[in-house]
Amino acid sequence: MTDNRKGPTLSDVARMAGVSIATASKALNGREHVRESTRQRVFQVAEALSFVPNPLAQGLLSGQTGTVGLLTSDLEGRFSIPIMMGAEDAFGAGSTSVFLCDARGDAIRERTQIQALLSRHVDGLIIVGARPDPRPPLAMRIPVPVVYAYAPSEDPNDYSITSDNVHGGRLAAEHLVATGRRRIGIITGDPGYGAAHDRASGAIAALNDAGISPLGDAAQFGAWSEAWGRGATHAMVAAHPDLDALICGSDQIARGAMDSLRELGREIPDDVAVVGHDNWEVLAPGARPPLTSIDMRLQELGRLAAGKLFAAIEGTASHGLDKLPCRLVPRGSTIRSS
Fold this sequence. Notes:
Number of strands: 11
Largest sheet: 6 strands, parallel
Mean pLDDT: 88
Number of helices: 11
Strand content: 5-15%
């Protein structure tokens, strides 16, 4: 007889199925070394009893708690939230919970948050940086698998996955060349960011492949802001009045560039085409005209990071750095109306 006040337990399922508690747990959790006939019998009993597994009990039996920690330094959630959504998709609804913590770019706070996550007995950690540049590995010894997403670890023994910024710059340039543009300028962000250089180098390489040099023979570096985009565009048009396209290192820069082009009487995209980077939904689709942009596929990055973490939790760890190719999202800022 089961205790109806408490509901059926794993012990009840095991007893009625004629197996041990450990075997019942393995069957319900999809583990190996359980005969299919036994697995089916356990499932049938569990269904008949309306048994709902207790997460804590599952953790004690399997050595896993069904939780992972996601630690970010991205205060706005602009990059970390899509990555977390992708990770949750990969882990599966209800099967794994994700605890999100914000380190705010502070090493001491990062250590405190990690200790808090480990105190919850998480099965693994995904570390999301605020900027897509290499970062030091976690300073403390971590007893669970760790995957670095968006910002790779400097330690090649760790596993990291990030967006391929060189590829993103190349996509932008190839798209503009394919639409017939030849007088192309490059305005990108903070020169202290490796991503700014990577996006510019990818664009310049693609232009060179097409026999084209960027206006001024180099990218213009500044800030990740609309103000920089406006000022740099005014200067670019003054120096190169025959400009017919701009590659911008971020959507914010691109929005500023588009403001300046309108002020200067240039039609977008008929006179000048503009490509941004990030495909930020807050900016790109609502721009006038809607902004063609490079999508870093952050949700897919989160899914892949979660897959690697899950494999490591199961005993198959990866090492090194993977770069996820970007994709171009064409919109009205580069496509002439027919």
